[in-house]
Amino acid sequence: MGRNRKSIPPLLTLDHHYIWFPILTYVIFFLVAMLIILISKHLDNKKREEENGLNPHK
Question: Which residues cross the membrane (predicted)?
């Protein structure tokens, strides 16, 4: 590692337009993952209720 090696600047030293891009990327990624998990759990519970005959909306 030489002295002329350039490092990535911290987020706070960047322009404020560039700070939001990585933050929003992570937030959107985790929101999509959370929605997929919640939908799959809901569908699994619905399927289990139908198998047990507990769903009155059949």
Answer: 20-39
pTM for the structure as a whole: 0.57
DSSP symbols for 1-51: --TT---PPPGGGS-HHHHHHHHHHHHHHHHHHHHHHHHHHHHHHHHHHHH
Per-residue pLDDT band for 42 (boundaries 50, 70, 90) equals: very high
pLDDT digits (tens, 9 = 90+) for 15-36: 777 778 888 999 999 999 999 9
Look-up of token digits 């891009």? 21
